[in-house]
Amino acid sequence: MKLVKSLCASALVAVAAMAAPTTSVAQEINLKYHAFTGKGPSNLATRWFMDEVEKRTEGKVKFTRIFGGPLGKLSGQPENIKVGAFDMGEFSPVYNPGLFPLANVTSLPFMTGDPMAHVQAGHELFQTATVEAEFTAMNQKYLFPGQWGSIQLLSHEPIRTIDDLKAAKIRAHGGAAEILKQLDITVYGIPWGELPAAAERKVVTAAIIGAPADAYAFGFGEIFSYWDDVDWFYFPMPVSINLDAWNALPDDVKAVIEEVRDETVVQARILLEEAEVEADAALHELTEVVKFDDAEWAKMIEARDATYKSWADAREADGLPGHQVLNDFLMILEKHEANQGS
User: Fold this and answer.
1) Closest alpha carbon to 238 in 152, 332, 125, 98
2) Per-residue pLDDT tens over the stretch 182-222
3) What is the pTM of this model?
4) Looking at the 3D structure of the chain, how many domains does it have?
5) What is the bridge-based pairing of β-strands 149-155 and 29-34?
6) Does a structural domain hold residue 104?
7) Is the dihedral of CA 93, 41, 269, 62 positive or negative?
8) Which BP terms in the Gene Ontology apply to this protein (predicted)?
């Protein structure tokens, strides 16, 4: 009996050790961060956050930083954080709508032309009880928005009308795909890594993608001739931490992390806009900017509103408060738009 009790106690200690951040004899806390891609715009904010936490804790917290996606793709980030394959990372509800169906409201199309207001509204929404529950269900604590990039349209032929959209073969995801489906337009789900070749061969003739930074960095300005530089939606990419790892942190470290994470909301947008200066100028040189006229834009807004209703109705059909979350987010967004304008 003593042997059984000893083995059980040992097992409990082992499980607790797996759930906790790594600590040394000197009580240095090591948190493992995994990026699904290499160093770049998608993790600018997280790198700033980690630098600040290390500095403000005077080295008490250290991050092991793993770049290039050796532990999994973007779509696998939530599950890997959940099980503790690593402690912290970015993910997107766009790639995991089944796991974060309500958080994905932040990817709906044409919500605002103010990216700073949108990212601040997302930060507030993700801390509401209803949406935070999605993170908790995945054994995660939400930290901050990460890089909230603009998603814009590039094409081989100018697109100025809804009929032009219908004539194109468009690669899209997230909110852009939702509104195209509302307009009864076929959406092509080409994986990102295959998209340049597909666009060159005109398997797709248009793409609604991260721009200007990603579009320029991956050569789409040399593939496509036309660019609609209006933000179709903002790509939500929250950063979260394994909940067991978070709970194991001492209170003083939690306080520093929460202080830095709130500062990261604005800093993330500033860093991205600075990184986009060169890309924006280059993409304007490489492409011709085209836009919808007022009459066509009015039709798009009508389709947008119908898309919102369809999105909320679909969540309600799944037993989720889709209309409440949509209305809450629109109200939060309106508040932050007003604050930006004041």
Assistant:
1) 125
2) 999 999 999 988 999 999 999 999 999 999 988 998 999 99
3) 0.89
4) 2
5) unpaired
6) no
7) positive
8) transmembrane transport
